[in-house]
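Memo to structure team: turn this sequence into structure tokens by end of day. - J.P.
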Amino acid sequence: MYVRVETEVRPTEDIEKVKKAVSNVFVGELRIIEKGNGYYIVEGESYSARSLLRIHELIRIQRIMDAARKKLQSGTMGSSIVFKLHKQAALAGKLSFIDNDNESPLGPITFYIETSDPMKLIDWLAPKTSMGKPLWEIEMPED
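Reply from structure team:
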């Protein structure tokens, strides 16, 4: 499994706040890359589903399993999953999935995931529910 997260830091933003926003949804080391003209990229990489533990937890805390499952499935193509989160919501410790960059005025936090079994990862992150309760809980994928 390969997980990559990235977001742009605009000249009006505080790099530390943007790092905090990403850290609220990604478990792992983050790098700052200077792009010029006051722009930076905050990015992180991982080879483990462990980096998604915070998302796993927030989906349950916020009780958004069905909505998260739908977003993750719609972002799946072959062995890839791509999804975007609202940056300001992430800074506040909340998950808010978005469909396009315009929904997050300061730009989204974008996740790119490569895995041999995308549905297994989705089943772990956001299982199907009945009456608001998960129908199953599986172990974190090792891949």
